[in-house]
Specification:
This protein has a 5-stranded antiparallel beta sheet. Strands 1-2 form a two-stranded antiparallel ribbon. The protein starts with 9 loop residues before the first strand and ends with a helix. It is about 30% helix and about 20% strand. The radius of gyration is 19 Å and the shape is elongated. The mean pLDDT is about 95. The protein is an alpha+beta fold. The longest helix is centred in the first third of the chain and has 17 residues.
Length: about 180
């Protein structure tokens, strides 16, 4: 952070930005690891693109939804999460419910012999919005992106349940979890 602290944009060891990637100093934007939020390539790319678009427009009009940035642990099997965890929802006083679907019941997982794992949706009870999700198992790094989109657009669990997921794909596991809540 050498030099950045003199600009007055460093707080607690990282650069503070709004969701537009703009700092509190006029005409200074920041993105990537200096933010100390998500030390992930795909997060830094999105932050950089939003910063560039806002700079080109001469004013901040685009935003990064930090809550919708997925994270994956590329193990065997994979584990991924997005949005609020149950602990974070509790800490914020959000009344939430969870719904899960085991991959052992999923047609694609059965066909491919990768039945270990599950999909879990974290849902704000009153609004029925998807506020987070966790996936453990085959293709978690891909499945989590649909949940990230749901978080980003404030989708209701019913919206996911009504989406016709192609059969047989592992993405049906999201559909099945959502249907379990919607019943």
């Amino acid at each position: 952070m050498e030099g950045l602290d003199r600009l007055g944009i460093v707080e607690k060891g990282h650069v503070e930005v709004a969701s537009t990637m703009k700092t509190r100093v006029p005409n200074i934007y920041a993105a990537g690891d200096v933010l100390g939020k998500y030390m992930l390539y795909h997060a830094a790319v999105k932050e950089s693109v939003v910063a560039a678009w806002n700079i080109l427009h001469g004013k901040p009009i685009y935003e990064v939804n930090f809550n919708s940035i997925p994270m994956t642990i590329f193990t065997e099997p994979e584990a991924a999460m997005v949005g609020l965890s149950e602990d974070a929802a509790k800490a914020r006083g959000i009344n939430y419910v969870t719904v899960s679907y085991p991959l052992e019941d999923d047609a694609y997982a059965q066909i491919m012999g990768v039945r270990e794992g599950w999909v879990k949706l974290i849902i704000e009870k009153e609004s029925q919005r998807v506020i987070g999700g966790v996936v453990y198992g085959e293709a978690a790094s891909m499945i989590i992106n649909e949940i990230a989109l749901a978080v980003a657009v404030n989708a209701r669990v019913k919206d996911i349940a009504l989406l016709a997921h192609q059969h047989p794909t592992i993405f049906e596991s999201i559909d099945r979890a959502a249907i379990r809540f919607s019943l």
